[in-house]
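P.,

For your records, the input lines for the assembly:
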Amino acid sequence: MKEIKGGVCAPLGFKANGVHCGIRKNKTKEDLALLTADDMCSAAAVYTTNKVKGAPITVTKANLQNGKARVLICNSGNANTCNADGVQKAERMCELAAQFTGADKSDVIVASTGVIGQILPIEPIEAGMPALAAGLSREGGAAAARAIMTTDTVPKEFAREALIGGKSVRVGAMAKGSGMIHPNMATLLCFVTTDAALSPAMLDKALHAAVADTLNMVSIDGDTSTNDMLTVMASGKSGIKEITEEGEEYAAFLALLTAVLTDVSRAIAKDGEGATRLLECKVSGAPDVPTAKKIAKSVVCSSLLKAAISAADANWGRVLCAIGYADAQFDIDKIDVDLCSAAGRVAVCRGGSGVPFDEEEATAVLSPDEVTVEVNCNSGPARATAWGCDLTCDYVKINADYRT
Amino acid sequence: MKEIKGGVCAPLGFKANGVHCGIRKNKTKEDLALLTADDMCSAAAVYTTNKVKGAPITVTKANLQNGKARVLICNSGNANTCNADGVQKAERMCELAAQFTGADKSDVIVASTGVIGQILPIEPIEAGMPALAAGLSREGGAAAARAIMTTDTVPKEFAREALIGGKSVRVGAMAKGSGMIHPNMATLLCFVTTDAALSPAMLDKALHAAVADTLNMVSIDGDTSTNDMLTVMASGKSGIKEITEEGEEYAAFLALLTAVLTDVSRAIAKDGEGATRLLECKVSGAPDVPTAKKIAKSVVCSSLLKAAISAADANWGRVLCAIGYADAQFDIDKIDVDLCSAAGRVAVCRGGSGVPFDEEEATAVLSPDEVTVEVNCNSGPARATAWGCDLTCDYVKINADYRT
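Structure tokens returned:
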């Protein structure tokens, strides 16, 4: 399952582009992305569970009812949410995308990200469309990935390749973080392409299965956004036989999709607002998977642990505290905790009680930019992993004056 | 229901004191508190719901089985939690408190607060007991309140007086915040005294009813501590007839207790770690009280809103977002939101959509050190209030190196 270049344009049959149209004041940053498929695709999506839903979610949901899509348009800088004219504006974005790509407006996925509750100006989007469409290319994935960024410090695009049914199949993705992230069923903005061939039903099934173990295990700040959306479009251009039921090919595609979404999840967490470190929690020995997931999420969500991690402080009592308030049934007196990273491993807790450890060694282990808290429940076979980040002053600074 | 001085010693029949015994390195700060009743009291308590429970919780629960207590001992600087010898040390604290006050060790309430997972040194407590006991007085409430502080910036003691059954009755309280606060059923450390006379059963009932609307509606950081405990001791010295059933006197006592615990809740929230502002959310028009409470808590728990409030930024979209992910059923399209304080009121949302407002005016309204988000669901009669605080860099700084 090889990593490859090209992001959403790595799979065959897709072109993309990103331009600065003027929704954002900063002219050096793209703010409008377009992704098109050469032909109609199977498509599936997951959406935020927040009761406040961005207008683009409402429109995209309607357009994906038939499991088909051909075009995706997404702006950053404005979420088009909690506005009286939101749906009208989102539909206008679909019309524009259709007009400039020759697609039907009902085959467009539309998304917006940015400030909530400010009217979306449609004029910059209208003005930006000709250049955006004219620049579509198989090399345009990077520009599109930049155009959907908000407070992200790095663009997030990934692609992997695997052999399925004897043929090379590719999955590509672009995503944006990096605050208001605490998924439940759906999550943030992530757009996935593949040249695998799947029926809409099987694509939907694979997407939900992969998201449950990847993006739904990410939390930056406990805030579930109003605009979270993850879509996948399958062009079928790899030439594999269409997957219409579970079996070897479906399993191979699911593994490939899960691998790419794991790449995305780690990148989103590591680039959390203000973050300096990826905080991973690997739970093993849990009685069942839901319990393992609840414990892993509880650990990466603890503000207190996250603050300690920002200073590479091995305050493992906060790990135990967070495990203890996870809403699940297990024996707290069997819990073992290790702190790990590329710099080594330190055992800090055995059977629910602290064990002596060398503070300098622990600080060294917590110093790299990716650290892992390993929790063994010693109570069963189930495992889960969750991803978050440390909590720093920069998170506060970024969010104190986000609108200006 | 008059505010009075004296904290836990305001009610008749109690003495208190606090000393520096040496658990903390900082010699200018008391770290050991003692509170005694002249005679046996009815007593009740609520405890943390965290599965990881501090050893003092285990011991206090056992001692309060009979609904009686006479002495309370509490140290700060060490939580005596996740230590193999925790219960043994907590029992030794009860023995010491009993020895120096003439009480039975089974009538002692014991509590500890501070770092989790470090062995509690008992020697400083043994050495500090003579001076601690010798200094007990009716003026000692303030020293005791200082001794239970951790990262609190101000001691928290309150007392109020009301006429019940024709006699003056007093309720006093001391409490400590100020991080790892996200109560559920029980909460932080708070010790309440009263000279009302109640049966243990009615005292327990009143305590649970009052806590549900006060301390259980406070959140600083979403972390439910391992050592949360709130106890109440009733001396009966006011001379009122013992309350043994619901009725006018019970209702009057409950109102008095609720008023003092509201004082405590607001003070705890306002002095949250790193906080510069009290963030209050008042929900009205909800279909039922549980829904109102969930919405109010969701708003004060939002990291994003809390960061915006630190900069007096009227980012009301984050209020809507937090309301939207509250786990409750209501019509999001009927929601009205106002921002309020002593400086005025600004309407920011009507019927789930934004309304134009003056940004300068909104900043002025959010500038005082106590601000309120008013949410009207326009869907029923139920109300609830929750308290939290803003999120600042100082929260991160305090918690980055808490152990050193």
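Two observations worth noting. DSSP finds eleven helices and 15 strands in chain A. The longest helix of chain A spans residues 248-270.

Regards
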